[in-house]
Here is the input.
Amino acid sequence: MGYRLACLAALLLVAAACGDLASGVGAPGTPTAGPLASATSITPAASGALTLAQLKYRVVDRFGRLWYCDPDFYPVARADEDSLAESRFAEIQSDAATFGAILAHLGYAPSSTYTHAQKLAIYTDWKMLGALRLDPAGAAYHFTARFTPDEKTGSLVDGTVDGRGQISVISQTPSGPPPCPICLARGTRIATPNGPIAVEDLREGMAVWTADASGARVAAVVLLSGSMTAPADHVVVHLVLADGRELFASPGHPLGDGRRLGSVTSGDVVDGAVVVRADRVPYGSGTTFDLLPSGPTGRYWAEGIPLASTLGR
Here is the structure.
């Protein structure tokens, strides 16, 4: 019973994250919300104080990259990240303090032109800085966030940073990835010992196939199933493999090998088959779905393609 309640709590956190992200809260460039907007008007008064962007970099340099739900992937993917790096570059440059901090941190000299690779790196850091909240707390700023050195392990840190970049840790505990809302299209067939079943029809306790620690297919049960209402402009990846397997799922959904679906392109190999197409297409079915099977890996097969669960463990 305690485990089921914990799973339910995790699902509620995912649903809450979906609501916040769908409304644009926390996305860089949002004028009425988000970490950059919420604290932009506050400037530390002490002599030698750093800018907010520089303070955020002090925190990241201490604990690792921010582990967050990238707004380009969760829950709505409106365009390719490469395209967004170009289209939003003028917006990034307009914030001179943040732009200057990013250039300095990346080691780029100020220039009238930048390569696409530089723009992408700048855009990636701009999103990260925008997602890291620093809330005024007396003479310092308070933060609570997940950080990771390798996108595999991480920690949840509660702490403060003052205007000169001095960090005080209140608590630091091991943490898995954030509960980003990334789900499957309605009608996606999940492999089970009783034959394929549409993901929306699976319920807790029902049998499914999962992978054990060695990668072998073994029977398991659904520990958690969930659904989320997708925004009207939700976009999914249409993945087609050369052997005929085909899948519709959100760009941020992890494949069984850990790659995000949105990172796969034509010519790549997925589960031993060449990718024929990996296009982003509008999703018009309203609700998206996911499940968490029992066992050590959280993996399952959707339309014959091995995936990892987004619901956490």
The helical segments are 2-22, 35-39, 52-63, 81-87, 89-94, 96-106, 116-131.
